[in-house]
Q: What sequence folds into this?
């Protein structure tokens, strides 16, 4: 969510020149003159010499309002039966704005005309709901027009994402059939610790949204097995072991993980199986040969496993999902980074192929 903050540099941004006359500050804006009124406020004389009174003024690309006495207003102001909010420096509030402190703070969103948004509003890919008073909803669940919806703490509608182990679909509705199941090795339900639950939520919500939707639409499921240990281990050259904490069952259409981060690597294996066309067209196999040193250094995969393309791709995806891993790939093997971005971007938000 974008958060709008006050611009303290009112004078520097707005005024092109300053001069003192009779102890009062006079400043020149585009096409007019700002004048200190002696009471700590400001008036504005237009280019034609008239004073701004009872009017909105577009000054240097920002809107201001001046009352009947010609004073610039700030805070809440009712104008022609419409409530507007102005910043401390007089600018008409636009975008996100929190009014109040701490838990009592209420979020609003103002359009370019200064009107508070009401009802449903989409910003940066997320949906929010605002009451008739313009206050962003932070209650979850919330009944809206006779239907219940679930929201995250920051007010965004939960869409195609997990909260804890629960899945919420693209309509903001829970779909228990796609919740993360927590099983022992015999398939009996067990509990995940709060720490593991938080880590699993973070791992799943970092997955590319379009591909997660395709995963769910394909009737795939996530299962966490906290006591399973590695599903297989690969000996390292130094005598240690490389653990693989995921496995995929095509017949069960299930991705199993024994560690929270196993879901990310396992999802990389799912991507490998689902992106044969893109990998062939972009010569992924050739990239593996030419970038072998960097791939092994980044992923830590033992050299004897470098021909296991699915494992290598899964490890590359897991690395790409982390900021430092992505930076390394873009620096040392930008062709692999480009391929990864191409594959991840091949699904639209609704899960369909672009």
A:
């Amino acid at each position: 969510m974008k958060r709008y903050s006050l611009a303290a540099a009112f004078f520097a941004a707005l005024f092109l020149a300053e001069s003192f006359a009779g102890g009062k500050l006079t400043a020149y804006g585009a096409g007019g003159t700002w004048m200190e009124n002696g009471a700590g406020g400001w008036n504005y004389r237009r280019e034609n010499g008239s004073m701004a009174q009872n009017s909105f003024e577009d000054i240097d690309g920002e809107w201001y309002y001046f009352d009947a006495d010609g004073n610039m207003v700030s805070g809440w102001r009712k104008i022609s039966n419409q409530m507007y909010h102005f910043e401390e420096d007089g600018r008409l509030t636009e975008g996100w704005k929190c009014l109040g402190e701490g838990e009592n703070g209420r979020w609003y969103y103002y359009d370019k005309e200064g009107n508070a948004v009401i009802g449903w509003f989409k910003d940066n890919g997320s949906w929010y709901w605002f009451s008739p008073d313009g206050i962003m909803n932070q209650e979850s669940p919330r009944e809206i027009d006779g239907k219940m919806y679930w929201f995250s703490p920051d007010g965004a509608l939960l869409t195609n994402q997990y909260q804890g182990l629960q899945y919420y679909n693209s309509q903001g509705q829970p779909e228990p059939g796609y919740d993360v199941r927590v099983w022992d090795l015999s398939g009996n339900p067990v509990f995940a610790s709060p720490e593991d639950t938080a880590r699993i939520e973070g791992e799943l919500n970092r997955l590319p949204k379009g591909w997660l939707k395709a995963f769910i639409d394909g009737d795939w499921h996530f299962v966490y097995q906290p006591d399973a240990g590695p599903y297989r281990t690969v000996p390292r050259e130094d005598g240690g072991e490389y653990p693989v904490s995921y496995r995929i069952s095509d017949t069960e259409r299930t991705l199993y993980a024994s560690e929270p981060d196993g879901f990310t690597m396992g999802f990389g294996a799912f991507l490998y199986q689902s992106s044969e066309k893109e990998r062939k067209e972009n010569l992924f196999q050739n990239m593996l040969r030419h970038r072998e040193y960097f791939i092994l250094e980044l992923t830590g995969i033992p050299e004897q496993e470098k021909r296991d393309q699915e494992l290598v791709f899964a490890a590359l995806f897991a690395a790409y999902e982390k900021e430092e891993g992505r930076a390394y790939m873009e620096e040392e093997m930008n062709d692999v980074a480009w391929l990864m971005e191409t594959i991840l971007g091949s699904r639209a938000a609704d899960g369909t192929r672009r």
